[in-house]
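Worked example 3 (structure in, sequence out).
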């Protein structure tokens, strides 16, 4: 696990941009953390780094937002998924085929998602603008990029 700390929303966006530099078609990124942790801002920084100029807003449940940058970016929010059967409405397998997919509250869908994933848990810190970001990679695709990810996030790394 890589642990990073940010002290301003812009730092979280910059960290997201660094992660985006390693993104590949077919990637799945779960964003985990309470309301206001910074999951949507992370996605904004991520998408901007891949050339998306459209405003990235919170997706409504059951609706995935799709942005076309250097690669396709799917953005979902699973906050209101109460039963995993509802996840069928999201047509996840089809979505995951194209581009990189970021899912806020992705832990709610974890059982129906492929194992290969990058999980980013954002935890509130002491100060209003302090956040701790814990990055965990699962599967060979992230293992192969782990050293590059360590380098990419080195500026924010605390452990
Ligand atoms: N270090 C930080 N990283 C991310 N967001 C921060 C940080 N400091 C303050 N914020 C603020 O926290 C809020 C995060 O909102 P948002 O990204 O919508 O969260 P979520 O999608 O997790 O509910 C924004 O108002 C943002 O400006
Ligand atoms: Mg959000």
């Amino acid at each position: 696990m890589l642990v990073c700390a940010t002290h301003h929303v812009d730092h979280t966006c910059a960290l997201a941009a660094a992660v985006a530099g390693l993104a590949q078609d077919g990637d799945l990124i779960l964003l985990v953390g309470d309301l206001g942790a910074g999951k949507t801002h992370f996605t904004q920084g991520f998408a901007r780094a891949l050339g998306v100029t459209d405003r990235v807003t919170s997706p409504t449940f059951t609706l995935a937002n799709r942005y076309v940058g250097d690669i396709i970016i799917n953005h979902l929010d699973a906050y209101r998924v109460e039963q995993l059967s509802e996840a069928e409405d999201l047509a996840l397998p089809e979505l995951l085929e194209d581009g990189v997919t970021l899912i806020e509250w992705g832990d709610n869908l974890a059982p129906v998602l492929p194992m290969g994933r990058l999980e980013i848990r954002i935890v509130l810190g002491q100060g209003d603008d302090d956040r701790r970001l814990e990055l965990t990679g699962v599967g060979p695709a992230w293992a192969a990029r782990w050293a590059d990810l360590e380098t990419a996030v080195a500026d924010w790394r605390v452990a």
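Notes: The first strand starts at residue 2 and ends at 6. The chain has a mean pLDDT of 94.
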